[in-house]
UniProtKB/TrEMBL annotation:
Gene3D superfamilies noted in UniProt: Medium-chain alcohol dehydrogenases, catalytic domain
Source organism of this protein record: Sylvia borin
Pfam families assigned: ADH_zinc_N
InterPro entries xrefs: ADH-like_C (IPR013149), CRYZL1 (IPR042633), NAD(P)-bd_dom_sf (IPR036291)
Segments forming domain Alcohol dehydrogenase-like C-terminal: 3-69
UniProt protein name: QORL1 protein
Length: 196
């Protein structure tokens, strides 16, 4: 859901969007989004090099902003089995960042080695962390007003059908506990709609 809204918001603001999809169903959904124009890279088979595809799409210049939903920190054989191998490697993201680019990551345990930092330094690139809970942790909740403005902006776009959320089938209330446990154990990466 976060990626869907981010793609639509970026397209609405005039950005050229390159997205990855982990299944044929996701790819078809992303290609149907309006306004049309997002390039969707299907990584479900694991044969596509995301960095190479992005650099080809941008004429070798790289991208201005990378917004990830997680990254691989280690090589495939060193990565824990529970972590999805479909995620891009951190070096791929560093490679596809353009000069002055911004990497916004949801990876809470991101570790950058000195060569990685040096690469960011040479490109004048930055790394930011995206944490949904940060609004609640602010000492005086100064972000609350900005959060309200942001959501009212999003809700306005949803009401005008500029943005279309991707909703899964609602789950009945009696299955909510089991579903939430699955999400909390990181066995599923989605938001749930509970039907009362």
């Amino acid at each position: 859901p976060f990626g869907t809204i981010a793609i639509q918001l970026a397209q609405h603001r005039g950005a050229k969007v390159i997205s990855t999809a982990h299944s044929l169903e996701d790819k078809q959904y992303l290609e149907r989004l309006r306004p049309a124009g997002a390039r969707v890279i299907d990584v479900s088979h694991g044969k596509i090099d995301v960095a190479e595809s992005c650099l080809e799409e941008t004429g070798g210049l790289g991208v201005d902003i990378v917004l990830d939903a997680g990254v691989r920190l280690y090589s495939a054989e060193d990565e824990p089995a529970s972590k999805s191998q479909l995620l891009p490697h951190k070096h791929d993201i560093l490679t596809l960042l353009g000069v002055g680019g911004h990497w916004i990551t949801t990876e809470k345990d991101l570790q950058l080695d000195p060569p990685d930092s040096h690469s960011l330094f040479l490109k004048g690139a930055t790394v930011s962390f995206l944490n949904d809970e940060v609004w609640n942790l602010s000492n005086v909740q100064q972000g609350k007003y900005l959060d309200i403005l942001w959501w009212s902006y999003i809700m306005e776009k949803l009401s005008k059908s500029i943005f279309r959320p991707q909703l899964d089938e609602p789950i009945p209330l009696y299955e909510a506990k089991v579903s939430m446990e699955i999400v909390q154990k990181n066995q599923a990466r989605k938001r749930l709609v509970i039907q009362f």
